[in-house]
Design brief:
CATH topology: Endonuclease, Chain A
Mean pLDDT: 85
Distance between the termini: 22 Å
Number of strands: 5
Helix content: 40-55%
Structural class: alpha/beta
Oligomer: single chain
Strand content: 15-25%
CATH class: Alpha Beta
């Protein structure tokens, strides 16, 4: 439970940073995947898509979804079920041509760094397809 509360604070802090640093883009939190993406044909992905899975932060450019940002704590690296959920979300993004940026929660400590801003710009304005940033 502590990690969930911590994740919520990370998302709030990251969201505040993004709306300040990238005022021309749109950002929304906790949008269900079924509102962002069409229903997948793949049965493996369909159940995940329909079970209220969401994007932590959705990034819009010219009112079009360009990226989702998924901050995460250690469970994303250690917990087998979480890894499977993450891989499904990554696959849904890939199928739909949307960038998925996975970042370690510790990145919140580096938001004032040029390299972090450069990474975000790369995902928001180019066609990077997967990856992440972990600065532990």
């Amino acid at each position: 439970m502590l990690e969930i509360q911590n994740d919520e604070k990370i998302i709030e802090k990251l969201y505040s940073y993004l709306i300040t640093e990238f005022p021309r883009l749109g950002f929304k939190t906790k949008i269900p995947l079924k509102k962002l993406f069409p229903e997948p044909d793949n049965k493996w992905l369909k159940s995940f898509w329909s079970n209220n899975s969401h994007a932590d932060i959705s990034v819009f450019r010219h009112n079009k979804l360009v990226c989702i940002i998924e901050p995460g704590g250690s469970a994303h690296f250690k917990d087998k079920k979480q890894k499977i959920r993450d891989s499904k979300k990554d696959k849904i993004c890939k199928v739909n041509g949307i960038n998925c940026l996975r970042i370690a929660n510790s990145v919140i400590n580096y938001l004032d760094k040029k390299i972090t801003r450069k990474l975000f710009k790369k995902y928001f304005y180019s066609m990077v397809r997967s990856g992440g940033l972990g600065l532990d």
